[in-house]
Amino acid sequence: MLGVLRKSRKKRSTGEFHILGFKYTNIYIVIQLATNVDTFNQQPVEGPLRGLQVIGTVNGKESSISGLNLVYNDSTDYPTIKSGENERFTFVLFQPPKYKNLEYLSIDPILLQSAEGDHGDYDPRDEKLKIINKKFNNIANPTITENTQPFNTEVLDIINQCYQIRSWYETWHRSSNNLKNQEHTGVSAKTYAKKLSRYIIFKPLTIIVACIQTIAIWLIHILNYEYGKNKREPNSRGIKITQFSAVFRQLELRLKQFNYFPIQFLCYLDRTLLYDENESMNNKNGLNKYSLALNLPIFNSNLNINNSNYINFHNSVWLIVNDILFGMSIQKLIFANYSAIAKFINETAIKKILFDDLYALISWVSFRHPAGFKLNNELGRFVGDLFLWTLRFWRLLCVDIFTISEKESSTGGWYVGGGDLGDAIKEIGGFGIKGFRVFDGKGPLTSPLFQTILSIICHIGVSFLVGFLIDYLQIISFHIYCFYYTSAKIYKRQVEILKSLFQLFCGKKYNVLRNRIDNLDNYSMAGGSGDYEVDQLLLGTLIFVVLILLLPTIFAFYLMFFLTRLLCLLLIYIGESLLVIMNFFPIFVILLKLKNSKRLQGGLTFTFITSNDENVTYLQLSNKSLTYKEIFKNFLKLFRNSKTFTLQSTIPNFVNGDPISLIQQNELKFNYLMLPRNYDQTINAWNHFTNTES
Amino acid sequence: MTSLAVPKPRRAFQIGSPPTRAKSPLRTRSPSRRQPWKKLLYLNQPYPDNYTNESFLSQLKRNTTVVKYSYLKLLDDFSLIAQHLSNLFLVILVFIGIYYQNWNPVTPIVYSSILTIFGFMVWDANRKDDQQHHVQREVEEISSSTTTYSLKTQRSKIKSSIILLFILLILSPVLKSLTKSTASDSIWAISFCLCIANTLFHEYAMASDLANCRPIISTNISFSSAIVLASRLSTNISVFCFVLFAIQANILLPVFDVHLRQFYPKAYHRSLFVATSIVVSIMVAFILNIKILLIWVMGQVGIVFVLPSYFLFLQKYKNELQGPWDPAKPIIKTT
């Protein structure tokens, strides 16, 4: 027999109480001690308190009452049992979780973020309950093999609702004592004030938020528009702007976050927004139609939703605030050293590294026997000249466009004063009139407008600045991409030709019909029966020998451009990693763990306190908070998978001549934040509110 | 082709034959219960596991498939090796002539081309005869179609060789510059390796299955060796001429030789062999020196005359065992 008991703060060594609580087959759950339970006995209990009953007494004189008869001794802190000497008791003491502070006991670890393929890891609930009960049995009565199954969801629910039940009981108790009238007027006054405040504050607020949401949705629509999509074929895919630009990818993420924030916020105020408790029987996850319309990637079930929404919401807000603060300080830094930075980018990065050094490298490979390897002079010179000519042309075109102005603009930027916005608008107008001044030697980035844009970007957040840098790097290294792509294509073709000609060289032939390689031992002079003729053989060998002797030259070019491209990709990879850290680092969760780890539910633990004799054991039931490993598990998964650029795929690609690239997996990020897939449905949540409140 | 029953196997047979009346000690102890031993693994016999009856090797035969070679026939066979070597050497000599002694590259090609055209005509005429035989044999079914077919193939043959010629001509500047930045030594090394590979992969079959005696790998190797050598030459015309000569000497000449062996008396083939040997020897004498000529001639004689006798000498060490059992063959999985 087990008593699940709340830990009492005061020692009730004297006085006589009745115990209110719930009783199951072999479990007593003690909720409240009461002196007077007469009303309880008169009226049947209805509503949320159904099942609450008198289950025993403390220090009761008459032992005739069935149920618990507890006695407090002076010697011990814990109650002992009075009746039933032959039965075993286990007292499980617990701090009633403060449900309003989002503390509760749960066997499921809280789901904060999701990574795809998470569902497989989760055991079904019953399995977990079994594990918990086993743990309990191990600690409570290790000697006895008898297995009791005290914990199920019902018991846990009652434990979690402990405070609520107490307050409900208080009100019920008072109302049954005919205090109704006075209470009633107070309540109505309160509701009236609530209604008033709703009309004055909340109505305009909701309208503003809804407007922002609409704008955000439209912007996301624009960002996700697929250009060049063939409308007749539904499966054809166009080109999205977010596929190329890190800034716009970042923008999309932010907009989606802002779009979902109101829902997230309201959801932990009012569960019914997304989770319909009435339908939880029919629907597996207990979703209502709004959340179905939103098409959320993953669902928390039952109690966890409020807390995880709360944590996620605050984590995101915190990161965004951090982002903006960092951005502002970095903007100050940039503008303090503006001319040095601009000079570095113009002179060192663009002119020196991207053009002069690359020029020297290409001419080294093509003319000067790179690293002592004797390549074919004629082919090397030819291919090298092609690349060098392209590079010179690209430099003519680009150095003017992509260098940024080194002169600090007189207005300085946005941060100086309020009047700068007007200047910016003026400049935008002027820019529009003058158009692209590429061939004056002044590109769009040299205009003072650039600095304004830069400071705006910094004010939106440092992540946007990083995104901008990634984009900038991709644009100014576009020629490297082209060179790499071209040389990879040439190399790939040559290797393919060599492969098939090697079959011929060895006297083999690919059989199309049987999909295998046939052995041909002899050639024919008469041209019969599918064998090679001698002239075909000679031509094939001629080409084979020529190509195999030219392969090192082509490979040298390919290797050079591969390495430069890899370098660029590594820089971009580092930038993307920074972005992931800035956008998704679980900082709020870590702080929560340090501050109040009860709010990070990772399961249940039992600790053994004492046992005064053989029949009675005392255990402490408490929450096991999430470990750091569990907190970071999904984050690391996201960190690794959101940008696939692994060596395993790079090396075979390099050998085969297939182009390498970073693969962005945007969906993974949205899944991680559990953002809804149908982002344009968020507006409808307001309808839900107006419906329920009217 | 006569298989000899040499005396040795017979003796082996006698050794193996069961001395049935000889009694083993086991048998003497329990003569009544013992059944005679049988060479059957699946029977449960009352003998120890390591028991070996004397009749165990009774069916062993030795050297049943040994062929007795005649020295003259072996001479013919070994002369093929010498001929292949002299073909290879011919090409190398021409290369040395063009590269070191500044020969006019057109001169050897003119001679060889005249010979090639002559050889082609002989080959073609004979092939037509052969096809007419063929037609007569397979009476009227395809008579009309085959004659046109042969004409067509003859024309296409000439056309494709002209195309190959022009491609060679076009590519000769490319070939010329192919290994310009590489040192000559490494080219000689590559060429030497390719020549060795060529001699190893070549098909030295005298009479058996002559129609299918055109190995692809050795052809390819000899041609690529010629290309690698040609890439060292300095002018386009010399590159072209040398590659063409190499094709004629190393690829077309063996084909023609096979043809001679197939359809003509052996004297023709022998005279061709002697002619090439003499040409090569003269060229060695002129281009290189007498010492190398001596080594070369001694090598040729050694291959043609000494090696066959050594081969015959080795025959007596042959020891082949055969019996009613299946010989174990190692199975190497290729998949």
TrEMBL record, chain A:
This is Phosphatidylinositol N-acetylglucosaminyltransferase subunit Gpi1p. One of its GO terms (molecular function) is glycosyltransferase activity. PANTHER family: PHOSPHATIDYLINOSITOL N-ACETYLGLUCOSAMINYLTRANSFERASE SUBUNIT Q, PHOSPHATIDYLINOSITOL N-ACETYLGLUCOSAMINYLTRANSFERASE SUBUNIT Q-RELATED. InterPro entries: PigQ/GPI1. GO terms for biological process: GPI anchor biosynthetic process. Keywords: Glycosyltransferase, Membrane, Transferase, Transmembrane, Transmembrane helix. It comes from [Candida] railenensis. One of its GO terms (cellular component) is endoplasmic reticulum. The chain crosses the membrane at residues 200-223, 460-484, 537-563, 569-592. The lineage of its organism: Eukaryota, Fungi, Dikarya, Ascomycota, Saccharomycotina.
Automatic annotation (TrEMBL), chain B:
One of its GO terms (biological process) is GPI anchor biosynthetic process. InterPro entries: Plno_GlcNAc_GPI2 (IPR009450). It is a multi-pass membrane protein. The keyword Zinc does not apply. Residues 1-33 are annotated as: Disordered. It comes from the Eukaryota. It holds the Pfam family GPI2. Residues 24-33 have a biased composition (Basic residues). Belongs to the PIGC family. This is Phosphatidylinositol N-acetylglucosaminyltransferase Gpi2p subunit. It comes from [Candida] railenensis.
